[in-house]
UniProtKB/TrEMBL annotation:
Its EC number is 2.8.2.-. It comes from the Eukaryota. Pfam families: Sulfotransfer_1. Residues 107-313 form the Sulfotransferase domain. Belongs to the sulfotransferase 1 family. Keywords: Chloroplast, Membrane, Plastid, Transferase, Transmembrane, Transmembrane helix. This is Sulfotransferase. InterPro entries: Nod_factor_sulfotransferase, P-loop_NTPase, Sulfotransferase_dom. GO terms for molecular function: sulfotransferase activity.
Length: 351
């Protein structure tokens, strides 16, 4: 159910029941009748269960504060697989039949062009996972502070954040993707304490081959300018033809800056792993996800959701050997050969 529909229902019910207003349209009459019928059923159940208590706030179907998690299993007695679970109470809608479905909070910490877009489409293929994309991807980043960040985190974990990924009622794992250059490291102490307090599990999604990542970054930046697909820029594609068009571009790589930029990424990743080491976390490499189907099952297990086969419509853009994708390949090869980064040159995958 979409947020809008749920919102409508929740907002209409109290109005009909308590304010005495009559609905404007005749077609609402049957709905009113239905609502009253359901209400009566609810009342009888509640009288049996809670006796003298205020039935309207206990019943779970009326009004905004209608939720009483007293009827759901006590979560603090369940510490299966050390996952911390919650019963969120969204502000705009009821969780309906999944009212007592506990929710696990997660975050994907990653870097641009590391397969996280593809990874999220896979996760969102699961009926019980909502992963909201880059909620801190906006341009106004320099004005943010932790107050702002924690409010937005709250809205995600309270199942109030709206995006096309939101599955609302029956979500049992909710999260988003957060790039390491989007404030994660600046506020890592506050964020760590938030994660620990609320039991947020961390998925590090990293890419082993930083040279391939660089090709992807440069090609994506080029396409932002050139808009190769009928004048529109695309970071991810859904067909072989589009992939081929985008992969046609071969960047020239500034070999002098190469080692330093790799060192920078290695440092950044190491710092992030250290900063969030005390959370419940897992490290996933993009290359392993591509090669090994069972990785996706392990991640579903980590998230505590039923294990299903997940699919994505996205098509990989760069599938050729690296030597075919870099215009000054010889220089790049000589620069990296004999260094700690020479493993990026050996390109057993995708060939
Ligand atoms: C749930 O269990 C915990 C620990 O066993 C207990 O302290 C708490 O009072 C229980 N809560 C409810 C609502 O029963
Ligand atoms: C708690 O654990 C029991 C069995 O260990 C399970 O039957 C029950 O569904 C769990 N409750 C929740 C809310 O996860
Ligand atoms: C998953 O979602 C389906 C419906 O979308 C729901 O029936 C089911 O209870 C949910 N399961 C879990 C474990 O959250
Ligand atoms: C945090 O940022 C918000 C929005 O930019 C601003 O309204 C608020 O005053 C800031 N709070 C602090 C404590 O700086
Ligand atoms: C782009 O143009 C090609 C032909 O030039 C056409 O086949 C394709 O459908 C177009 N794609 C979009 C998304 O408009
Ligand atoms: C994380 O902590 C474990 C032990 O608690 C330690 O062995 C490991 O080296 C730490 N990893 C990082 C990246 O700090
Ligand atoms: C890579 O470096 C080694 C020495 O470090 C050299 O023997 C080898 O020829 C180099 N490879 C290429 C393709 O230049």
């Amino acid at each position: 159910m979409t947020v809008d529909r749920a919102q409508l229902e929740v907002d209409l019910l109290p109005q009909f029941l308590f304010s005495g207003k009559t609905p404007k349209k005749d077609s609402f009459a049957w709905k009113l009748l239905l609502v009253l019928l359901i209400g009566l059923c609810g009342l009888s159940i509640c009288f049996v269960r809670v006796g003298q208590k205020n039935v309207f706030t206990e019943a779970g179907i009326f009004g905004r504060q209608a939720v009483s998690i007293a009827h759901c299993p006590n979560l603090s007695q369940n510490s299966t697989k050390d996952i911390q679970l919650h019963y969120p109470k969204p502000r705009r809608y009821q969780r309906e039949e999944c009212f007592c479905t506990p929710v696990h909070f997660f975050v994907i910490l990653s870097m641009q062009r590391s397969g996280s877009g593809w990874f999220e489409t896979l996760l969102n293929d699961h009926p019980n996972i909502s992963s909201h994309g880059e909620i801190f991807g906006g341009r106004e980043r320099q004005y943010w502070n932790f107050t702002f960040i924690s409010k937005r985190l709250d809205s995600v974990y309270n199942l109030d954040y709206k995006s096309s990924a939101a599955k609302n009622e029956c979500t049992s794992a909710v999260g988003f993707k957060w790039m390491l250059n989007q404030g994660v490291m600046e506020y890592h102490r506050e964020i760590l304490s938030y994660f620990r307090r609320r039991g947020v599990s961390v998925i590090f999604l990293l890419r082993r081959n930083l040279l391939r990542r660089l090709v992807s970054i440069l090609a994506n930046a080029y396409d932002k300018e050139m808009k190769l697909l009928n004048g529109t820029h695309k970071s991810h594609v859904h067909s072989k033809e589009e992939a081929n068009t985008l992969a046609y571009f071969k960047p020239v790589i500034n070999h002098q800056a190469l080692s330093e930029s790799f060192h920078h990424i290695v440092r950044l990743t190491g710092n992030a792993l250290k900063a969030f080491n005390s959370t419940r976390h897992t490290v996933v490499y993009y290359e392993d996800l591509v090669e090994r189907k069972e990785m996706l099952e392990q991640i579903q297990e980590f998230l505590g959701v039923p294990i299903l086969t997940l699919r994505s419509q996205q098509v990989k853009i760069h599938t050729k050997p690296l030597s075919d994708q870099i215009r000054n390949w010889d220089i790049v090869y000589d620069t990296l050969n004999g260094t700690e980064f020479e493993k990026f040159l050996v390109d057993t995958q995708y060939t």
